[in-house]
Amino acid sequence: MRRTLMVSLLLVAGCASPAWTDSGYHQQVVTTAEAAASSVDLVRLVVENEARLTRPYLQTVLTEAVTALGSVDSQFSAVQPPTRAAVSARAELTALTGEAADQVQTLLNEVRLGGVENPAQAAGDLRELSDELRAAAE
Predict the structure, then answer these.
(1) In terms of Cα–Cα distance, which of 91, 85, 87, 100 is closest to 131?
(2) What is the Cα–Cα distance from 119 to 113, expressed in whole angstroms?
(3) Within 10 Å of residue 95's Cβ, how many Cβ atoms?
(4) Which secondary structure element, helix H or strand E, spans residue 34, and what is its range?
(5) Which residues contact 92 (CB under 8 A, 6 or more apart)?
(6) Stated pTM of the model
(7) Is there a contact between 98 and 73 (Cβ–Cβ < 8 Å)?
(8) Using one digit for the tens of pLDDT, what is the confidence trace for 91-127?
(9) What single DSSP character describes residue 81?
(10) Which of 99, 113, 116, 118 lies 20 to 30 Å from 15 when distance is taken between CA atoms?
(11) Which of 33, 36, 131, 35 is nearest to 90 (CA)?
């Protein structure tokens, strides 16, 4: 019983580790924002070239992008911010990564139902979101 409790506590402690310094947390913000922006850029390129790609390929790329964005957000959310400024940065970045995952999921749903409804608009929205993510990394 005691061993099980100790292992459980160690696992829980590992799920939400603190960032000890602002610079360490800032580096995690940068890494997360860049990873999310890269996923968004890939989706934008796929959407811009949708007419030349097969639906199964589009579904695969979009599914993997949704998964990647969720993973990036989950890993980042597991780190506790060390200061109030870091809390603000966290809120901004998680809002952007959440928006990215939502947009990609919407595009995936559209592809499953026949195709992206407005590829030019979607590509423009994705470009703006990528720019916002990259600005959050600065």
Answers:
(1) 100
(2) 14
(3) 12
(4) helix 22-48
(5) 136
(6) 0.82
(7) yes
(8) 999 999 999 999 999 999 999 999 999 999 999 999 9
(9) P
(10) 99
(11) 33
